């Protein structure tokens, strides 16, 4: 009996010590670490520069992804079917900017892609980065924009010469879907408030339906504060007191304007990540473009800022459930910004894209 008791006592000691010294760790399922294929669209203008930056950093980290690259340009009439098929197969895409021609009847490939894949939610993360001075502090805004209808429905025609009719389409289904996405995002990310942006005082039926849908969804999330703001007042409040906003949910056109405004306030389009997501697919890209794609001088001098797309690719890694790689990449980028030695011209620096990329790679732990 004495030996038996000693054995039990020793077993208890071993178990106790094991509990004290070892934490519970994630047990990966078979195949979780297998490299994932990503559809890559370098795009126009600065696109190839910044997508190449991501390729270099992913290789340096030995991230479990590889790219299937397709040459697509904004002046194409249609997105090539092989590209659509690739994204449908891989479920995830990383893309540079695609230039949309002004007028001429050429459709936006960006809009085509969102419709074809039903990428109904655009998310732009606009927040201050430590070490990057801006006019306003404590800016941390997430703009969630409906991506498939509204003024971007593409329903335009010339009634008679000199008179063009453009239809804005708002549906209850899409409005409730984007509202639910915004509230789910807020709930899962410990956000406190969702603000709906609208122009229902003028567009009483269309934007009125959008607001009704947001209110219906808001009632299901009592722990999250919900409020509404007219889009013109929203823009004024953004540039005067942006810290009052948390998560913003908007119809299509307003979201484009609000996201670029918020990005400018928080440090510029060159550092704001974003993505477009649907039920099945996701496309990650620079969160706010504001014309960067077409800056030929930036392309010639190779001074495009890669930070926005690098942070977007960190979002992509989280989406793929590779959080440790996402953290390493995000921390490296933020450390380079904080240190302040390597910055492109838009951040008041003199460095090239490649010099910033090299600095990020050097910071990867």
Automatic annotation (TrEMBL):
Pfam families: Iso_dh. The keyword Electron transport does not apply. The keyword Nucleotidyltransferase does not apply. Keywords: Transit peptide. Residues 37-360 form the Isopropylmalate dehydrogenase-like domain. NCBIfam families: mito_nad_idh. Belongs to the isocitrate and isopropylmalate dehydrogenases family. This is Isopropylmalate dehydrogenase-like domain-containing protein. It comes from Hibiscus sabdariffa (roselle).
């Amino acid at each position: 009996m004495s030996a038996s008791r000693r054995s039990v006592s020793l077993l208890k000691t071993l178990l106790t010590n094991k509990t004290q010294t070892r934490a519970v760790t994630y047990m990966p399922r078979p195949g979780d670490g297998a490299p994932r294929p990503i559809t890559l669209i370098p795009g126009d203008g600065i696109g190839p520069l910044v997508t190449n930056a991501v390729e270099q950093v992913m290789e340096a980290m030995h991230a479990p992804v590889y790219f299937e690259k397709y040459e697509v340009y904004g002046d194409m009439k249609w997105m090539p079917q092989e590209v659509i098929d690739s994204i449908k197969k891989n479920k995830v895409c990383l893309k540079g900017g695609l230039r949309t021609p002004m007028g001429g009847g050429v459709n936006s490939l960006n809009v085509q892609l969102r419709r074809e894949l039903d990428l109904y939610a655009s998310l732009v993360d606009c927040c201050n980065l430590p070490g990057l001075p801006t006019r306003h502090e404590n800016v941390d805004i997430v703009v969630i924009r409906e991506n498939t209808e509204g003024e971007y429905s593409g329903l335009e025609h010339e009634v008679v010469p000199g008179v063009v009719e453009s239809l804005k389409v708002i549906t209850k289904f899409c409005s409730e879907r984007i509202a639910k996405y915004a509230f789910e995002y807020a709930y899962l990310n410990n956000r406190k408030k969702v603000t709906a942006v609208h122009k229902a005082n003028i567009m009483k039926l269309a934007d009125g339906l959008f607001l009704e849908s947001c209110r219906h969804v808001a009632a299901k999330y009592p722990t999250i504060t919900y409020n509404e703001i007219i889009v013109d007042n929203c823009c004024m409040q953004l540039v005067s007191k942006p810290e009052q906003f948390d998560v913003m949910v908007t119809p299509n056109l307003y979201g484009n304007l609000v996201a670029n405004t918020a990005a400018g306030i928080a440090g510029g389009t060159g550092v704001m990540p974003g993505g477009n997501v649907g039920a099945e697919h996701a496309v990650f890209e620079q969160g706010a473009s504001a014309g960067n794609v077409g800056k030929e001088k930036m392309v010639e001098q190779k001074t495009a800022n890669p930070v926005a797309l690098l942070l977007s690719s960190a979002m992509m890694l989280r989406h793929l459930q590779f959080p440790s790689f996402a953290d390493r990449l995000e921390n490296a980028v933020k450390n380079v910004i904080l240190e302040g030695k390597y910055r492109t011209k838009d951040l008041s620096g003199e460095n090239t894209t490649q010099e910033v990329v090299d600095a990020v790679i050097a910071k990867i732990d």
